[in-house]
Amino acid sequence: MAVFTVVIVVFLGLIGFSTALLRWNELRYRKKGLPPGTMGWPIFGETTDFLKQGPNFMKNQTARYGSFFKSHILGCPTVVSMDPELNRFILMNESKGLVPGYPQSMLDILGKCNIAAVHGSTHKYMRGALLSLISPTILRSHILPKIDEFMRSHLSNWQDHVIDIQEKTKEMAFFSSLKQIAGIESSSIAQEFMHEFFKLVLGTLSLPIDLPGTNYRRAFQARQNIVNIVARLMEERRASTVTEEDMLGCLLKEEENKYKLTDEEIIDLIITLVYSGYETVSTTSMMAVKYLHDHPHVLQELRKEHLAIRENKKPDEPITWEDYKSMRFTRAVIFETSRLATIVNGVLRKTTQEMEINGGFDINSFMLFTERERERERERERSPKIYSFCCLYAIWTFWVVSNGIIANEEICIEFSGFVIPKGWRIYVYTREVNYDPYLYPDPLSFNPWRWMEKNLESQPHFLIFGGGTRLCPGKELGIMEISTFLHYFVTKYRWEEEEGNKLVKFPRVQATNGLRVRVSSC
Ligand code: HEM
After folding, report:
1. Which residues pair with 45 in a beta bridge?
2. Residues pairing with 79 in the sheet
3. Does residue 343 have its Cβ closer than 6 Å to ligand 1?
4. pTM given for the model
5. Nearest CA residue ID for atom 18, ligand 1
6. Rounded CA gap, 326 and 74, in Å?
7. Regarding beta strands 76-81 and 425-429, do their DSSP bridges make them parallel or antiparallel, or are they unpaired?
8. What pLDDT does 24 receive?
9. Has 76 been labeled as part of a binding site?
10. Cis peptide before 507, with omega less than 30 degrees from 0?
11. DSSP letters of 475-508?
12. What ipTM describes this predicted complex?
């Protein structure tokens, strides 16, 4: 009996303690004007729920609080924005104090001159320097021929082998960038660079624990080794009388180049170029192969487009700019792949000052926002399952309010303008937009034709490549790489998936044991 009493007392004590802790944490962040939402546990916030439940965490919070809510995830108080109009507003207003909010650990590993670490005029300058390396003229005259040559060699002799597409597309994204940057693809320097680069990538995705043996520490060492490799390449180039026609060559042409960068800036720009295009290009290519395998009628249409390009060419003739521009269906396949797989869940911003988030709205955005909320409200009313959830939620709300945990104004989902404190993160979560049936009818089907009918690419809600002043500068380069990869893959080969492939879609899209396919000649 005594043991039983002790267990009950400990149990009740734990409940009381947990409730007090949660309540204290909510009170800590209680401030008039903040969006509704919960902050979870001190320090950890709601990170575990977010990582465990993934997109469902976001859906549940939206059902409760609307598409603009507060939380505490990945170590920071964060406001999650899932509304397309608000998302655009946030991305368009960097100058009002909504700057990139990537974790400090990532910025440290990528370098202090990395494009995501700089703002204002420095960002404009670094972005200008980067854009000058991948302008449409350079893409056409220098980069497309390099990509074409690279893809031919990378995709040779895959027939009659089991190929891990995930591994091959990662190598492809990495070596293709290195060839464009410094003309190296299979030398020992390229291998050494790759070895260090893979460690650097792991570090940017790990917890910032600077202890021996951690991915974070290894990434710092890898960064230092990469800095040494690039510095060595620059020294060799300066000592040589030959000017190479690649990105490094352009950056070192001091007299002709409008953008004069220091060695440190050049090195960080090169790391930015390799890093930004690595996972995005490789994962989109891998997922395109997956969806094409699962949708033979799409593959047939894609193959038709590429065989028509090859029809008037000799077997080893490269694709031209005009060929690339004619790949309309391929472009649609790439967009549909990025949408359905959601390669990028969203982007992070942080506030440099306390700010009111409805201040800059035009009335149309505001009306769209409230109309969407009303529609969601109507949907909640229609769905009995959600209705019963709402009843439970109302009971919970009554309990919470009567205990004073959350102030009344936080629970009402009425939009009245929110105040975001200085230093808070804003997670511009674009994933849900990809599955919005109003924007993409039958959103879970893989239907590239939807991109051909209307010009969806120029719609304001199209944020697959970000938006505003940070719109992806590598968009055309990335599409060109994936298109060239698909060109040679579908015209040379057929493929069947092996058993045992497993894909996870959150927090990153990846094939946990690789995406193994058996390849045969066409
Ligand atoms: C399918 C391929 C790609 C996708 C889906 C993609 C997506 C994105 C997105 C969503 C952003 C916005 C980040 C933000 O707002 O914080 C971005 C920015 C960026 N991307 Fe890409 N990207 C792709 C390929 C590339 C490639 C090949 C490069 C190489 C040049 C590149 C370089 C960059 C850079 C440097 C930024 C930062 C721009 C800035 O801060 O001004 N991306 N990308």
Report:
1. 41
2. 70, 426
3. yes
4. 0.87
5. 472
6. 43
7. parallel
8. 66
9. no
10. yes
11. HHHHHHHHHHHHHHHHHHEEEEEPTT--EE-SSS
12. 0.99
Q: Is 429 exposed, middle or buried (0-12, 13-18, 19+ CB in 10 A)?
A: buried
User: Looking up tokens 């005009």, which residue turns up?
Assistant: 322
Which residue has tokens 């808070």?
A: 424
CA separation for the pair 232, 263 (Å, rounded): 11
Q: Are 102 and 344 in contact (CB under 8 A)?
A: no
3-state SS assignment for residue 349? strand
How many residues are recorded in the chain? 522
Tell me the best of 179, 280, 331 to mutate to test the pocket of ligand 1, counting ligand atoms within 8 Å of each CB and taking the most: 280
Q: Ligand 1: which of 272, 427, 472 to mutate, most ligand atoms within 8 Å of CB?
A: 472
Q: How would residue 33 be classed by pLDDT, with cut points 50, 70 and 90?
A: confident
The CB of 472 under 6 Å from ligand 1? The reply is yes
Identity at 485, one-letter amino acid code: F
Give the whole-angstrom CA distance, residue 327 versus residue 301: 11
Tracing tokens 């108080």 back to the chain, one arrives at 77
Delimit the CATH 1.10.630.10 region(s) of the chain: 117-347+435-493
Backbone angles phi, psi at 167, to 5 degrees: -65, -45
> One-letter amino acid identity for 138?
I
Q: How far apart are the first and last CA of the chain?
A: 77
Q: How many helices (H) and strands (E) does the chain have?
A: 21, 12
* 187 against 298, higher pLDDT: 298
Tokens of 233: 């390449």
Token look-up 């960002």 returns: 123
Q: 516 has which bridge partners?
A: 164
**Nearest one of 162, 166, 170 to 493, comparing CA atoms:** 162
Cβ–Cβ contacts within 10 Å for residue 208, how many? 16
Give 117-347+435-493's CATH code, choosing from 1.20.1250.20, 3.30.420.40, 1.10.630.10, 1.10.150.530.
1.10.630.10
